[in-house]
Amino acid sequence: MNSAFRVIVGLSGGVDSAVSAWLLREQGYRVEGLFMKNWEDDDSTSHCNAEADFADARQVADTLDIPLHRANFASAYREEVFEHCLGEFRAGRTPNPDILCNQRIKFRAFLEYAERLGADYVATGHYAGIGGPAGAHQLLRASDRNKDQTYFLYTLGQEPLSRAIFPLANLAKPEVRRLADSAGFGNYDKPDSTGICFIGERDFRAFLARYISTSPGPIVSVDGGVLGEHVGLAFYTLGQRRGLHLGGHADRPGLPWYVAEKDLENNRLLVAQGHDHPALMNIGLFASDWHWVDGQGPMGEKRCTARLRHRQPDQPATLRPVNAGRWRVDFDTPQRAVAPGQSVVLYDGEVCLGGGIIDTRIPVPEASAVGAA
């Protein structure tokens, strides 16, 4: 009987975690909520948003008549996630805080805290599924392909998956909102969060400038010629269009400009004109720091599909071992804006195999000399 198991749900104040708690209670589990505070600074707006989220979580807990715990993981988040990301930005790479937060906060710090409270399982409002027997759990795509969040969860191995429940695996977002409304949750129509994990929806460049010094340098076309000045390579990512301020070049009319490369040695930001310029395209990549859901990974070369970002359609690819801990991914079709520091996540049908951190891009042959000027 489910009533024998205590489940602590990470109540964020959002509609997804609220419905997850409701579903588990309906299934007979002994449900409790836990609101995580994972960021602290002197920004009054950020503080107000956190308090508003807590008020929403409290309303859900009161409606369900379940206990609501509150825990502060801000120190762990700063040390385990934020400081690591700052180091990556300074190195000219583009980290993904949301993936690291899931690995080290939501399914480590939160899980350990919940265990101390006597939890048998933890649950979140992630759109993903779990299948397979004990010791061979699989991370599965959610039914709602538009909301599927397995890209952000690929670092979860057998132990966290054995203790986790994802109640929204087979629900679409409109149905989740309908259930929240019928349950009496005031947040049923609350907008989805689109900001970086626990940092919020703010001007990211201005936020990052509080921690990383600007270091201006030239913006240079891959075809030659200085076009402007950047504020510091840490503040840009490959494929970026906004924030370059390159309008008004009478000798270069037409298509918009995109970041094609970061020349760290010379502090140059290389840009290309046109969304699909060859300098933006890559036929493959090398990646390290792999995490395999099954704990082992493929034994050799494997056909699979890959995603370079959340919600990207699956891209057919071939995975090949290079040396210990490093793999090469070759795409059937060239991919745009492969960014070192981001994750490549691999799938076999509905099953998320795992993923790694991109460290090197493989350019299309005609772009091999891009940036040499």
Automatic annotation (TrEMBL):
This is tRNA-specific 2-thiouridylase MnmA. Residues 96-98 are annotated as: Interaction with target base in tRNA. The lineage of its organism: Bacteria, Pseudomonadati, Pseudomonadota, Gammaproteobacteria, Chromatiales. Coiled coil: none annotated. Gene3D superfamilies: Adenine nucleotide alpha hydrolases-like domains, HUPs, Translation factors. Belongs to the MnmA/TRMU family. Keywords: ATP-binding, Cytoplasm, Disulfide bond, Nucleotide-binding, RNA-binding, Transferase, tRNA processing, tRNA-binding. Catalyzes the 2-thiolation of uridine at the wobble position (U34) of tRNA, leading to the formation of s(2)U34.
